[in-house]
Write a structure and sequence with these properties.
By secondary structure, the chain is mainly α. It has helices at about 1-35, 40-60, 60-75, 80-140, 140-165, 175-200. The protein starts with a helix and ends in an 8-residue tail after the last helix. The relative contact order is 0.14.
């Protein structure tokens, strides 16, 4: 059973932790692209996908811990220093992901999605106001009044869209902080991987 648990443990680590590490590492770069072009829908869609991958596979990563304990128990190395260190590092990595990475991803996603909606609402309001102005020029004072009302309505619609869409404003350091926390998360998992290879128990460990 030891070999079976070990195989499942390694597969779970590759298939669950791997996607989280890659998606979380890509998120800051795509976030910078989204901030550079608020009206572009493609980066927002990509951010949603990356955040969903991180959230879903983070839950699946519980299997890594379960099969890890089963493997260690089967090998009789639960009291080994390298394993205890790996457990501590895994716990710290999980805390960073759950408390620092995922919430910041969600906040950033809400902000860029809100900025995109604001840009769209402002464009729609400007179009409505412009249309009212054209009718005013063609039809005289009465229509001008209607055009002014149309401009006011368009501006009001844009303001309403702004109020409803903007949930949070991004700080300029958000992308850098995300990259930093993600880097620490990946570094911790890399350290755990090295510990597992160098000191996997009584078979190949020194």
């Amino acid at each position: 059973m030891t070999k079976l648990f070990l195989i499942l443990h390694v597969l779970a680590a590759i298939l669950a932790v791997g996607p989280v590490a890659v998606a979380a590492s890509m998120f800051p770069k795509v976030l910078r692209d989204a901030l550079a072009g608020p009206g572009d829908a493609a980066p927002v869609t990509t951010l949603r996908t990356l955040h969903r991958i991180c959230r879903v596979y983070a839950g699946a990563a519980i299997a890594v811990v379960v099969f890890g304990f089963l493997t260690a128990s089967s090998m009789g190395v639960l009291g080994s220093a390298w394993l205890i260190t790996s457990i501590v590092l895994t716990f710290v990595a999980a805390v960073i992901l759950i408390l620092l990475v995922l919430p910041r991803q969600e906040t950033a996603l809400e902000a860029v999605a809100g900025a995109k909606a604001v840009a769209a609402g402002a464009g729609a309001g400007a179009g409505a106001g412009g249309g009212g102005g054209d009718v005013a020029v063609a039809a005289g004072d009465a229509t001008a009044t209607a055009g002014d009302a149309g401009e006011a309505d368009g501006a009001g619609a844009a303001d309403s869209a702004t109020d409803s869409a903007v949930v949070v404003k991004l700080d300029a350091r958000t992308s850098a902080q995300l990259a930093m926390f993600t880097g620490v998360f990946n570094l911790l998992w890399a350290t755990v991987t090295v510990l597992m290879i160098v000191r996997p128990g009584s078979t190949t460990g020194g």
